[in-house]
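One thing: mind reviewing this one?
=====
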Amino acid sequence: MIQEEGIVTAVHNGKATIEINKTAAEACARCGVCISAGDVKRLLEIQTIAGLSAGNKVILKIDTPSAYKGIALLLLFPLLAFFFGCIVGEKVTFILPESTNLRMGIFGLLSFSISLLGASLYDKRLRAKGFRPPVIVSVEGERPEDAEG
């Protein structure tokens, strides 16, 4: 999660355009929420709250994807699944009883493939849930809940 400070440039049709002045950072580039063309002003268009107008300073909470979860899903789990499949292939002797190495390879690749299929299905489910947009945390020292009511 990143917290950014910005200035509301426009409010129309229930959307607020917020300008963030910040040079490109690694976390900023990984997030992919902003519309920008380099190290210039970054613009966000998010759902507005009651009482928000152009010129207000706001603090935004932006959820970022976890790099560790991606590494685990695409590297760690398939590798562990491959080793687990090899161990199972060594213990199962009724399939190809005369060729232990072939059996271990088949079971290892099968479990590796299943783990990649699981990661693909998990990714598809996350994409179907959609992207969580940035949220306004505070407006010029006020909490958004106070501004609404």
User: Anything to note?
Assistant: DSSP finds four helices and five strands in the chain. Residues 67-128 form one domain. Strands lie at 2-12, 15-21, 41-47, 57-62, 135-139.
